[in-house]
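User: Please check token order:
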Amino acid sequence: MQPADLIGLDHDAHDTARQLKLPSVRLAPREDLASLARVAPLLRAARDLDQWAASDGSLALATEIDPARAAEAASALDLAPREVIAAWRVLVAAREATMPMPEPSGLADVLGGGSTEVVLEVWDTALTVVLASEELDGIATALYTVGGPVGIDGLFDAYVAAAGADREAGQAGGDESAPDDAGEVQEHGATLSLALETLADLAVVELGTEESDGSLTVSLSPLGTWGVHRRLRAQGWHVPVLGAAASYDALGLLAALANCDAEDGEAEITTWLAASEPAAAAAELIAAAGDGSPGQRGAAFAVLDRIGLPALDQVRAALTHPQLRAHAAVWLIEHGEDIRLDPDDRTWLLVDLGAGLLEEANPRDVVAELLPSLPAKDQAEIVAELWQVDHPEVTRLLTALSDHHPDPAVARAARKAAFKAASPAASPVPSQAVSAD
């Protein structure tokens, strides 16, 4: 994913996120998260500000602090003015979240001796305040979506580009002022720097270095991952968590596997199967596969491989399901059943497997893996007939083949087949049933 795609979340985070697959994450133990929250610089600044304000009755229940008092607090507590403003917002929100605040030390008691849940509640409240007041929701969501470190240089370039797009949109609406490009770039750089500094003060992000060139990177911290995960889940997103497979239904497991590497995926499958009776798990997987995407169908039958013969009856029943029968036939053949797989079902399965790979992988890589052992001439002959396969993803697969296949003859056959598949006059040939001898 490019940095520009990430910053796009600033403008409409939720609509963009709906088009993205959120990665599976591993959440740290809550006690460890609370320990990180207790020492977050911004919460500690809010604690010190709370103690400082306690000496002045006029500030005890105030929701705002005037500039003069903020400057006084900054001097007394050795904080920057912006840190005082941010800490005051956090303090006010924390008072409301944990009312009545413990006396006499207020937030100090919460951070020093409060329970894990109370500390996390205060930190989560602070996160909400910071993301709202600093307009950082898009950056935090974007970093979660990437699931790993992002180069700060790339993040800066994307931030400037996105801000420039906003400015151009504003000018199109009537703002004809001529911008000072150099000045605006500097301003956006300062804005992003302060934004990351604020997130770091709350222990939301961590800075690191790229091993290859030593450049700076930024990523969500364990605490930031937990906080953004909590927000996305509350908004209705499917946000898979590694290690939680036992609580998933089959569809949840398949969705989680789509975002796992091989090692994590094996661990999730093992956990899920250990919590389920084999035949019941097989029935649930078959039902999920029947309603799922091509990639989920492939994953479901891979999990059924782990179940083995206890899944036999459920897989046999899937032979009557149009979307599953080719997968079921192959599974049964591999488990010793005397099943005949018709040519039409072979080509349907080829398209389904290719479509499943396209859900997760680069089209160029999918093309390279699809028919690797066949001579180019044989590949061209197979591809030329794929337009007849009654599969909703056939045109997408043929387009990928036409755009990325290295052999010109195969690519040409795919282009012609894609045109036929997309033509209103195309009449796909229905697949024939798989039969058992």
Notes: The longest helix spans residues 152-172. The chain has 23 helices and five strands. Strands lie at 150-151, 205-209, 216-220, 339-340, 435-436. The chain has three domains: 1-239, 245-341, 344-422.
